[in-house]
Design goal:
The structure holds three protein chains of three kinds. By secondary structure, chain B is mostly helical. Chain B has 19 helices and four strands. Chain C is an alpha/beta fold. Among the domains of chain C are: 29-102, Roll (Ubiquitin-like (UB roll)); 304-544, Rossmann fold (3-Layer(aba) Sandwich), CATH 3.40.50. The relative contact order of chain C is 0.09. In chain C, helix 8 (316-330) crosses helix 14 (497-508). Chain C is built from 17 helices and 23 strands. Classes of the chains: A alpha+beta, B mainly alpha, C alpha/beta. The interface between A and C is large, with 52 and 39 residues.
């Protein structure tokens, strides 16, 4: 009660000292809100900033209504595939290095020299394991900025789906790899003899990675893609070989 | 607009219709009871005590059990829904019942009443180990909290006494000639329930709540009684039906102070308590809030600090505490209606015409109409109490005591003596009414002429007196307003 | 180039060879580099001399232990002795000469050379193991920092030529500095590498039909300033910026080569040679380079009791109680023998042998240790135990005599040994056979770092920390005492040998207060005259240690200690 302060404060006048007019003004405020919200329909599924209705209710009745995301919303990351279906990732660890949440875990492998795959002649390093702990991820997008190979993007516009176990939030390559295959003129397999493009077509200068790309808004999958959740510890980086 | 129409139709048609129906049924059943049990038959006599025939049973059934109890129950969910509206929220809407087409609609959250009730009833009824010693008192707590407030409703006239089948049927369970004194006496009994609950729970917080409740309720008893004395003096009675009066006879609050007539329709300024005793009304309303232990006087409960005297209660025992609080809201609304708002009378126009027209030709319909008017006033006051509860923050404990003893009590005494002097000077109540209307005019003038708060200094206007560091720059502030 | 291009401060080239001035400082050469006077011994390289006044001359092909090739042209500087720019690595110091390394002309030439070197260099940094410790990266950022002007494709070569068991070559990344060729010719004296073809087609390769099988092949990886030569053992296992570094000593043989231990979390990823003129110069052998593996693999991590099928892991206290009870019963009798390995550090030996002498009451020690192996003329020694000299010193200082391992086997077969206390489970003979013989002993307590047949037959196994998990010192074969630093906390429940010895002595009732290897050395080394004068602290200042969790030492990369101290992102709570 501001009664005491009000009666002692020389700047107050009788209205504040008797307190009752101020009470009535307060009541007027709440009654005004009550009436507006009671009698007028609520804006549903409207962005808060675009609301025009008389009702001032801001609650969103999820899940029937959902807040629309701002245009800059990126969503969950994904690994970009090459044309042969393998991830573009070369396990350079730059994303794992930049990641402020330390949620990316990579294990690098080397294609065998005897590998029949044509890629193996030009691509030596690949991720044997690429794991993102979505619980740790803060969706900052620094990994996308850091990637020199356009191998990780955040353009799905999706949330991390819910899971029953913590280990379910640890996404591996099969779960992360999605979207159409992507090629860049600077890709090494396009510069080698035998590839579809001329071996010496020097295009790096004119094709900057990620330029002119249309954001990929993937549809919400009816049944979430889910890899088998195994119990036990999630692997930590161990590059040790015998 | 669809929503607006829907809500207006409910407010204008459905609710009054239902209330009219309840009142009509009460008179009909009362008449039937009086007729079928002639043992208790007495002479047809208006404004008689209601208890002389079995008709009081119908009043008990329809007004106390049906109207008061159901309204109190609905208020539990109304409080949540209405508070949501004042706070720009949606409020309860998730409980759905019935077939698929019904489940599409939230019905304003009404199914939550059923959900809440089922939860209360089927919840495990625990008793703390420490309360074993006083288990009878522990059990008695909710009973003593509930019984007095419910019993208060017995003397409230929910409608006029009208002749049905040749018997005088009143809408009142009892009409003792000590009416208001009964109210004051029984209301003060409620403190036993809270005190016992707090004591028997054997818990520090519950005891603290009980002690707070006891001291608060006892403090405000005084102001509560004093604020009513003015009305008793003005009408020289303590009987509620007499206070309300009769439009046909021009007595009580139904009389016009200044009246005119156009085409046979009477109009004028009624002698309502709120016009005769605006200060008394304000004091009574404040004191009544303190009696209900609701915000801003909810220190006994104080959910953010001590939880309150019912801390150790669960299940329907706690539910009893809760429902008695809401019953108190309804009963106090009814009391205010009867004492200050002219009871079942429309007030400003048409009362006499109605009483002499419909009242003579179809007395039951007239009675039911009056009952509906009374109930609508009660519903409005319930809503108003809820709005007040969600507008004002909780007082500090010493502020409550200061307000009770240093503000309300002196003002009540002043009001009593001034009113009594005015009544002595002019028994026709005109001077009293002039004084009351002047009080209202001054209050309205003060409220409407409030100086605009200095731009961006809401804090200062509230009396904090420190320059507001969050104030917007002058240009931005003027653009803002 | 006209003199106008020079900075006004730079001296004009002289018209005629000046008369040789008298030396300013007799016995030394005095010259001027970037306006600062430098006094150097005759024969000092200009790059080294320039470093003393803070002039950092970039270079690829020069190495202070290799012959001068001057073929990378990065170290070109302005000299008063020549109108043209001269390669700093090849320019002999002259009295009174004036050198400028900071003129625009030099900067422009450096930039041009960088552009030339990068002309055909693939932008492989993402997958290149050298990234993070690559001179090409560093100099590009520092000196060039401009896009390539090459039109048309880069020259394509073999990107993965496996040269030998330890080295793989990416010919595209090579800048033809020939450091590797010169190293194999001049230091390893096994000329297995050569330059082939001419001009822009030039490339490094092994001679036809050969492989890079030298025992010093790992050094060419260290020498390679770019990512052309890579270590097959380390390749793709960790990015260099994840690794932290601590100075240590190779324990592969008694040579005691100085090393850097590169580690992440509690795993060691590689050894690199550390400069030491007296012992290993800049090199180390491949065998020693790979000797880090037992630090990670097949470690004994928890104390255990019981032989074979009765083996169960127990707490340290329980294992100590059992060992104490058994050993106390036989202390002071001839039935109790102590086997000690010359692989233990001085501190381990000081504490362990003190325990053997004072608590167990033995007078003779049986010496175990790894068996002898191959040796060569450069660095590798036949004695594969890093601290045999230290064992000799400590045992002599404590008045204990040493007996060969064969004597222990004989005594066991004769049945005179009933209990055996083992400090370091290495044995100089076939491990399985020795374990079978030693199994006849009634009670064996072993302090061991790795799982061996002997730990399988032991009654009590006390897991022991390795030399990278604790502070310590080793005595090299020539009697040089060298300190090793702790890289990370001991794995699992392991403790240092000295720590177990001190713990058992406490169980025996000796009121010891040693808390660290430093305490042990300070308290016990005075008994050993050779060690007494060793500056344990001055050689490597003590880490600021406190109780509880201890942060790791800062790595060579300047990352704060504890950065990714336990590897990659670890998912907690699963």
């Amino acid at each position: 009660m501001a009664y005491y302060q009000a009666t002692k404060d020389p700047t107050t006048d009788i209205r504040e000292r008797t307190y009752v007019p101020e009470l009535l003004h307060g009541l007027a405020v709440t009654i005004r809100h009550f009436m507006r919200n009671l009698f007028f329909p609520r804006d549903t599924n409207t962005d808060v900033l675009n609301r025009t209705g008389t009702s001032q209710i801001t609650t969103v009745s999820y899940p029937e209504e959902q807040v629309t995301y701002p245009p800059g919303y990126r969503g969950l990351h994904r690994l970009v595939p090459r044309e042969d279906g393998k991830p573009r990732c070369v396990a350079c660890y730059l994303c794992a290095t930049i990641c402020p949440a330390q949620c990316i875990h990579i294990e690098a492998g080397e294609y065998e020299t005897t590998d029949a795959s044509a890629d193996s002649r030009v691509i030596e390093k690949y991720p044997t394991s690429f794991v993102i702990d979505e619980l740790r991820c803060i969706v900052c997008g620094l990994c996308v900025e850091a990637c020199p190979k356009d191998a990780i993007r955040m353009d799905t516009g999706r949330h991390t789906p819910s899971e029953y176990t913590r280990s379910g939030f640890v996404w591996d390559i099969p779960r992360l790899l999605e979207g159409p295959p992507v090629n860049h003129p600077s890709d090494p397999w396009l510069k080698r003899p035998g590839s579809e493009r001329p071996a010496h077509a020097h295009l790096e200068k004119h094709a900057r990675i990620g330029e002119g790309l249309v954001p990929l808004k993937l549809p919400r999958p009816a049944h979430p893609v889910r890899t088998e959740v195994t119990s036990g510890p999630v692997p930590v980086t161990k590059f040790l070989r015998d | 607009m669809n929503r607006t129409l829907k809500i207006l139709s409910v407010a204008i048609l459905l609710v009054p219709g239902v209330l009219f129906g309840i009142s009509w049924a009460q008179y009909r059943v009362g008449g039937w009871l009086a007729e079928s049990c002639p043992v208790f038959h007495t002479q047809l006599q208006l404004c008689d005590t209601g208890g002389t025939s079995l008709a009081w049973v119908s009043a008990l059934l329809f007004h106390m059990l049906l109207f008061v109890m159901v309204l109190a129950t609905l208020l539990t969910v109304a409080e949540r829904k209405w508070s949501a509206f004042t706070q720009d929220r949606i409020g309860p809407e998730r409980a759905r019942i019935g077939p698929a087409w019904m489940r599409k609609h939230s019905f304003g959250g009404l199914p939550h009443v059923a959900a809440d009730a089922l939860k209360m009833i089927f919840k495990e009824n625990t008793r703390p180990k420490a309360a074993d010693r006083d288990r009878i008192l522990f059990w008695l707590g909710p009973v003593l909290a509930f019984a007095p407030v419910f019993a208060l409703a017995a003397v409230i006239p929910f409608g006029p006494t009208v002749p049905v089948n040749g018997y005088a049927i009143s809408a009142q369970v009892a009409n003792p000639n000590f009416g208001l004194l009964y109210v004051l006496a029984i209301a003060s009994l409620a403190v036993y329930g809270t005190s016992l609950a707090g004591w028997a729970s054997n818990s520090k917080f519950a005891l603290l709540g009980g002690v707070r409740a006891a001291s608060q309720m006892i403090s405000y008893e005084v102001a509560l009684g004093l604020s009513l004395v003015g009305m008793m003096v003005a009408f020289s009675t303590v009987q509620l039906p007499v206070l309300i009066g009769s439009a046909a006879a021009g007595t009580g609050q139904a009389q016009y102070l200044w009246q005119g007539s156009v085409l046979g329709l009477d109009f004028g300024v009624p002698a309502w308590g709120i016009f005769l005793q605006p200060l008394g009304f304000l004091l009574f309303f404040t004191a009544a809030f303190a009696e209900t232990k609701r915000a801003p006087f909810d220190v006994p409960e104080g959910e953010s600090e001590i939880i309150g005297y019912f801390l150790e209660y669960s299940g329907m025992k706690f539910g009893t505490f809760m429902i008695s609080e809401f019953i108190e809201v309804v009963v106090l609304s009814a009391l205010i209606t009867a004492i200050f708002l002219g009871g079942w009378h429309l007030g400003f126009a048409g009362d006499v015409a109605l009483a002499q027209g419909l009242g003579k030709s179809h007395p039951v319909l007239y009675g039911a109409f009056c009952g509906a008017v009374f109930a609508m006033k009660v519903v409005f006051l319930c809503w108003f109490q809820l709005i007040v509860r969600w507008t004002f923050p909780r007082f500090r404990y010493d502020q409550i005591m200061t307000l009770g003893w240093k503000v309300l009590l002196p003002l009540g005494l002043f009001n009593l003596f001034a009113s009594a002097a005015l009544v002595l000077l002019d028994p026709s109540l005109h001077w009293l009414a002039v004084a009351g209307l002047l009080e209202i005019a001054v209050l309205a003038g003060l409220t409407l002429t409030r100086k605009a708060p200095k731009s961006g200094s809401g804090h200062e206007a509230a009396g904090h007196g420190t320059p507001d560091v969050h104030a917007l720059p002058a240009a931005a502030a003027s653009a803002h307003h | 180039m006209s003199p106008k291009d020079n900075k006004p401060s730079s001296p004009p080239p002289p018209a005629a060879p000046p008369a040789k001035p008298a030396p300013k400082n007799p016995g030394f050469v005095t010259l001027n580099i970037d306006g600062k006077e430098v006094t150097a011994k005759p024969g000092t390289n200009l790059i080294t001399a320039a470093k003393t006044v803070g002039a950092d001359i970039p270079y690829y092909c020069w190495h202070h232990r290799l012959s001068i090739a001057a073929n990378c042209r990065m170290c070109l500087v302005e000299s008063s002795t020549s109108p043209k720019l001269v390669p700093a690595c090849q320019t002999a110091l002259q009295e009174g000469m004036s050198i400028r390394t900071d003129t625009e002309r030099v900067a422009e030439v450096r930039r041009s050379v960088m552009e030339f070197l990068l002309l055909n260099h693939p932008v492989d940094c993402a997958i290149c193991d050298q990234a993070g410790e690559c001179k090409l990266e560093d100099y590009y950022q520092r000196l060039d920092h401009k896009p390539s002007r090459l039109e048309g494709g880069k020259i394509l070569r073999n990107k993965r030529k496996v040269l030998g068991p330890l080295v793989v070559l990416d010919q595209e990344r090579c800048v033809q500095c020939t450091r590797c060729v010169r190293f194999m010719d001049e230091v390893a004296k096994e000329p297995q590498l050569g330059m082939f073809a001419r001009g822009s087609e030039e490339y490094i390769d092994v001679f036809p039909g050969q492989q890079l099988t030298s025992n010093y092949s790992g050094n060419v990886v260290d020498l390679c300033p770019v990512g052309a030569l890579l270590n097959r053992d380390f390749r793709f296992r960790a990015r260099s910026w994840f690794l932290s570094t601590v100075a240590s000593v190779c324990t592969g043989c008694s040579r005691g080569c100085n090393t850097y231990v590169d580690f992440m979390g509690q795993d060691v990823y590689r050894y690199r040679p550390r400069e030491n003129d007296a012992i290993n110069q800049s090199w180390m052998c491949d065998q020693g380079r790979l000797s880090y593996k037992p630090l990670n693999l097949a470690r004994v991590q928890a104390p255990s009791l019981g032989r074979a099928d009765d083996r169960r892991e127990v707490t340290a206290a329980e294992a100590l109680l059992r060992a104490t009870a058994q050993l106390k019963a036989m202390a002071g009798t001839a039935e109790l023998a102590v086997l000690v390995s010359p692989s233990c550090s001085n501190e381990d030996l000081l504490a362990g042998l003190t325990f053997a002498k004072d608590a167990l009451g033995v007078r003779h020690l049986y010496v175990g240790g790894r068996p002898d192996g191959a040796a060569d003329a450069l660095l590798m020694r036949a004695d594969k135990n890093p601290n045999r000299k230290g064992l000799a010193w400590v045992s002599a200082g404590l008045g204990l005599s040493l007996e060969p391992f064969a004597a222990l086997l004989k005594a066991v077969q004769a049945g005179t040994v009933k209990a055996l206390y083992v400090l370091g489970a290495e044995v100089p003979v076939d491990e399985a056979e020795a374990a079978r013989t030693l199994a006849q002993v009634e009670f064996i307590a072993v302090q061991a770092t790795n799982v061996t047949p002997l730990t399988e037959t032991a009654d009590v196994v006390l897991p022991t920390a390795t030399h990278v998990e604790d502070e310590g010192s080793f005595v090299q074969e020539d009697g040089v005492v060298q300190r090793v630093r702790r890289a990370f906390p001991p794995r699992g429940s392991t403790r240092g040998h000295w720590n177990w010895a001190v713990d058992i002595m406490r169980e025996f009732g000796f009121p010891l207060t040693y808390e660290s290897a430093r305490d042990v050395f300070r308290e016990l080394s005075p008994k050993v005259p050779e060690l007494a004068s060793f500056g344990w602290d001055s050689e490597a200042p003590p880490l600021k240690t406190q109780r509880g969790l201890q942060p790791l030492a800062t790595g060579a990369d300047g990352r704060p200690p504890g950065y990714r101290e336990f590897g990659a992102p670890r998912v907690r709570g699963i």
